[in-house]
């Protein structure tokens, strides 16, 4: 029997289930955070106790989920008018905003404290900064104020491999920041490809995404420019000795594919978003392919 709705502060809510609280954590984003943080742990020099590694990875995952919950709390008004997000737990009336804020705040403190206990203060501090940057700098400030929102805000999504590296080694050297750079440069073309064919959503919500503010032509040019820089940066782990020839081959092929699809986006007719959808889908494969190859090389001892 379905639970009866309840009323809080004059608004009616359906009784939330575990799946609604899980949805608050943005599980798809969390999965990318877990994966890239794990690769950072494996690639980092030295060894970490397997149990502490698992606990550290759990803490990073909880921190990512906390960021997602706080983002949904803050962006509930935007989510309610965007077709892509209107079914999320808060705008759908299953979880009150205040409850989501408390949930996210609790998980934030828990994740940072747990990582400090399981690994070290550097990793915990980086995780705390990641949560702060995503929620305050990106969600509360950049997202609604500048078309460069996803460019600068992408730093939050690029930090997990650095956090993972720090958790395993207690350091955050240049090599770790090369992994950061790959994700940081990947983020704008990835999200702008989505924003091209979801432009109407962002216009209705008043979010100044690049296609809304600068137009499609400018956005397509910037996607292609970022693709060129990203393809070059994607091979850099090989150049600094972090990766081997397998990674070089995979990163070169995927980089060529990214540039080719971005070229198609650049030359697509106004209003034709087929190439943008292809690039968005491929961009996920691109990032996964790079980090999966790094992981395979290090686990198999093929790097360097």
TrEMBL record:
Localization annotation: Cell membrane
The membrane-topology field of this record reads: Multi-pass membrane protein
Question: CDD domains this protein is in?
Answer: PT_UbiA_Cox10 (cd13957)
Pathways involved: Porphyrin-containing compound metabolism; heme O biosynthesis; heme O from protoheme: step 1/1
Q: Which InterPro entries match?
A: Protohaem_IX_farnesylTrfase (IPR006369), UbiA_prenyltransferase (IPR000537), UbiA_prenylTrfase_CS (IPR030470), UbiA_sf (IPR044878)
Q: Name one GO cellular component term.
A: plasma membrane
Major location category of this protein: membrane
Q: Name one Pfam family in it.
A: UbiA
Sorted keywords for this record are: Cell membrane, Heme biosynthesis, Membrane, Transferase, Transmembrane, Transmembrane helix
EC number(s) of the enzyme? 2.5.1.141
Sequence intervals crossing the membrane: 29-48, 54-74, 95-115, 121-142, 149-168, 174-197, 223-240, 246-266, 278-296
* Gene Ontology biological process terms in this record: heme O biosynthetic process
Query: Remarks, anything else?
Result: Carbon 2 of the heme B porphyrin ring is defined according to the Fischer nomenclature.
Entry function: Converts heme B (protoheme IX) to heme O by substitution of the vinyl group on carbon 2 of heme B porphyrin ring with a hydroxyethyl farnesyl side group.
Name-wise, this protein is Protoheme IX farnesyltransferase
Q: Species name for this entry?
A: Hyphococcus luteus
Which gene carries the instructions for this protein? ctaB
């Amino acid at each position: 029997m379905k639970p009866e709705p309840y009323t809080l502060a004059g608004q009616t809510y359906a009784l939330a289930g575990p799946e609604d609280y899980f949805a608050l954590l943005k599980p798809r984003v969390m999965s990318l955070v877990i994966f890239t943080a794990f690769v950072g742990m494996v690639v980092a020099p030295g060894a970490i106790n397997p149990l502490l590694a698992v606990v550290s990875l759990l803490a990073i995952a909880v921190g990512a989920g906390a960021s997602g919950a706080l983002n949904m709390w803050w962006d509930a008004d935007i989510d309610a008018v965007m077709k892509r997000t209107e079914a999320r737990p808060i705008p759908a009336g299953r979880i009150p905003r205040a409850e989501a804020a408390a949930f996210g705040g609790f998980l934030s403190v828990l994740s940072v404290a747990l990582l400090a206990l399981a690994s070290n203060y550097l990793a915990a501090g980086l995780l705390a900064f990641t949560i702060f940057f995503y929620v305050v700098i990106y969600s509360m400030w950049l997202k609604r104020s500048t078309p460069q929102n996803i460019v600068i805000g992408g730093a939050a999504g690029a930090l997990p491999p650095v956090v993972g590296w720090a958790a395993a080694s207690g350091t955050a050297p240049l090599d770790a920041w090369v992994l950061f750079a790959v994700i940081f440069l990947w983020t704008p073309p990835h999200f702008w490809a989505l924003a091209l064919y979801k432009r109407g959503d962002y216009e209705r919500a008043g979010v100044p995404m690049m296609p809304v503010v600068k137009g499609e032509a400018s956005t397509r040019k910037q996607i292609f420019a970022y693709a060129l820089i990203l393809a070059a940066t994607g091979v850099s782990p090989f150049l600094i000795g972090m990766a081997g020839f397998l990674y070089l081959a995979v990163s070169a092929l995927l980089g060529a594919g990214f540039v080719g699809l971005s070229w198609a986006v650049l030359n697509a007719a106004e209003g034709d978003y087929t190439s943008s959808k292809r690039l968005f889908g491929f961009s996920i494969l691109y990032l996964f392919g790079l980090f999966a190859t790094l992981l395979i090389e290090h686990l198999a001892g093929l790097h360097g």
